[in-house]
Amino acid sequence: MAGISAACALVDQSVSVTLLEKRPFLGGRAFSFVDGETGQEVDNGQHVYLGCCTAYTGFLQQLGISNRTMLQQRLRVPVVDNSGKVGVFSTAPLLPAPLHLLPSFLAFPHLNMRDKLRALSAIVRIHRINRVQRREELEALTFEEWLKKYGQSKRSCDVLWNLLTLPVLNDSISDVSAYMGIMAFQEGFLRERNSANIGYSRVGLTELISDAAKNYITHGGGHVLSGHTANNVIISNGNAYGVDIGSQVIPADAVVVAVPWDILPTLLPP
């Protein structure tokens, strides 16, 4: 949704915007489709957001669609293992951040006390570390390597650290950098009481975003061209002058390219 967000922000500044989207709908990977067997609308993966995702919640408010989503007032997440044993991560009613999750963590049945104490030591370290100043060092390590460096067991990595990292960063602790892992815990679990509250759409993702974003852009004087693929960005003397979409060239004073990093080189001159 980076391209949509950029287009909406530019429209707010009275910039004449043309948004290109290769699919017939807006929303990027956050979309829904009709299942061929059941006829039901299904999301492309379960997309949720957290209370700390202030840019996203602000975007929902900008489009006027916050009422079509649900955000927990207080975090409560059951964690069930293969044997059926249930633990619950929840926010304590009276404790401030970063202590608000401590009671439910101490009662968490899937870790022994030794692992809990070691995990608490790592959590304190995460809370105190200045990740920006140490970014280069932290980017050179995976989050798993960093956790093991500070005494986290395989059990703890499996049932605690990966449990929380995977849904937040959409990848495991063995694949994300220590910088990203620490950022996720600082912003999502330690900074504010409501940071980890879980939100989701009450309607299909395409219904939530696509029409609202298109209406916002067009009512602001912009244009949306769906079903058009950008073949390349036209650049001369270091400046972008337009986008070639095959059937025509769309002239532009500036071009915002919101695509996956590996696609970008294919749109630029060699």
UniProtKB/TrEMBL annotation:
Ranges for domain Amine oxidase: 1-265
InterPro entries (alphabetical): Amino_oxidase, FAD/NAD-bd_sf, Zeta_carotene_desat/Oxidored
Pfam families: Amino_oxidase
GO molecular function: oxidoreductase activity
Protein name: Amine oxidase domain-containing protein
Source organism of the structure: marine metagenome
Source taxonomy: unclassified sequences, metagenomes, ecological metagenomes
